[in-house]
Amino acid sequence: MDSGVGYGLLIIFFSFPLALFTIFLGILSLIWKQGLIPGPIVLVVAGGAVLFYVYGFFETQVF
Fold first, then answer.
1. Is the separation of the CB atoms in 25 and 43 below 8 Å?
2. pTM of the model
3. Do 17 and 50 meet the contact criterion of CB atoms below 8 Å apart?
């Protein structure tokens, strides 16, 4: 088996979701700075997104 396959899977399954997560938080912060969403709502949504990402990461490690 080619050793490059492991690195490809690492990039696909770790880096891509992390990039999507970072883009989501960036868009959320831009909307917040425009004043379209109140601060407390942004904190709740961002906190939920962080917890969901951490849970998803650890779930793939355990199961």
1. no
2. 0.56
3. no
Number of residues that make up the chain: 63
CB distance 25 to 46 below 8 Å = yes
For residue 46, what are the contacts with CB-CB under 8 A and spacing of at least 6?
25, 28
**d(C-alpha 37, C-alpha 57), whole Å:** 28
**Domain range annotation of the chain:** 4-62
Rounded Cα–Cα distance for residues 33 and 56 (Å): 28
Residue-by-residue pLDDT tens, the chain, 63 positions: 455 556 666 666 667 777 788 888 888 888 888 888 888 888 888 888 888 888 877 776 665
Please name the residue that has the structure tokens 């997560």.
21
